Amino acid sequence: VAFPAIFERIKAVLAVDKIVRLRGKLDLSKDDEPSIILDDVTEMDPSVFDKKLAGSGAAAKKKKAILWLNASRMSDDEFNELVAMLENYEGETDCALVRGSKKYKLSHGINYCRGLLAELFTLLLEEEIKYVE
């Protein structure tokens, strides 16, 4: 949901197949479908995804790469949502999560791809996502 003043400010960012980051309030009224009351929408620069994927090519296959995710600022529910989302991207890349002083390694690898990065950017900040070869 975008009220008129917000919509006027964000309409230039909205387009088909454009990756955006939404910020707002989640409305979970019992009578209606869940919705987000938008405060802001920012365009995600596709080159951010390309840079983060650059190290995952053929040269990276020689060394075992790992995706580090810093989930320290997440609530328990957000952390559980992150882990559940990662289960949808099973693949060959190792994935480790940092939460406070604890480190967790997923029992399965993940498929490091643009779709995964797009979903990660909805839950984490760019500096909380590190791909290490």
Q: Helical residue percent?
A: 25-40%
The sequence of SSEs as H and E is HEEHEHEEEEHE
Cα end-to-end separation? 41 Å
Number of strands: 8
Major sheet attributes: 4 strands, mixed
Radius of gyration: 17 Å
By secondary-structure content and strand pairing, the structural class works out as alpha+beta
Q: What quaternary form is this?
A: single chain
Overall pLDDT confidence: 84
Strand content: 25-35%
Give the low-pLDDT segments: none
The outline comes out as globular
Task: Report the total helices.
Answer: 4
Q: Describe the strand arrangement of the main beta sheet, using strand numbers.
A: 6-5-3-8
Explain what you see.
With 133 residues, this protein is of the alpha+beta class. The chain is built from four helices and eight strands; from the N terminus they run αββαβαββββαβ. Strands 6-5-3-8 form a four-stranded mixed beta sheet, with no helix packed on it. A hairpin with a 7-residue loop joins strand 1 and strand 2. The radius of gyration is 17 Å and the shape is globular. The model has no long low-confidence stretch (mean pLDDT 84).
